[in-house]
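Hey, weird one. I pasted the Phosphohistidine phosphatase SixA sequence into the form twice and got a warning about non-standard characters only the second time. First submission, copied straight from the form history:
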Amino acid sequence: MNLWVLRHGEAEPRATRDAERRLTARGHEQVLHSAAHLAGKPLQAIIASPYVRAQQSAALVHEALGFSEPVRTVPWLMPESDVQHTIGQIERLGLDHVLLVSHQPLVGHLVGLLEHGHLQRPAAMGTASLAELEGDWPLAGLMSLRALHMSC
């Protein structure tokens, strides 16, 4: 399985609700830069948090790649989602090549747990950072971090 984890691009600092924060112009650029690393990858699904900035990030990747399947929106990719539950949901997908678009602290904890098997070493995921993990199953400690592309 190949799992790519993308943190949304830079978002505006304030909105009525956190979930409504939109990407800035810089955030758009960051996401497009990260999307370039996904060109030619055999993605089967793009799955995103329902928050506006994650939806915008997923849509930018979708368009940049010319991806044919619609972006899937799921509640288990929100910032404070339970990491173990998220891993269970990834496993239930039954897919081999998936892009997740989400937020901190979830993305850092998810990458750290999949790579190290514990939560003591979360991955440093700045805005629009893209982690590429590979392994037989999406289980704690059983995936290898192949690359971590940091946004410019």
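That's the output from the first submission. The warning seems to come from a hidden character in my clipboard, not from the data itself. The helical segments are 25-35, 52-65, 83-93, 106-116.
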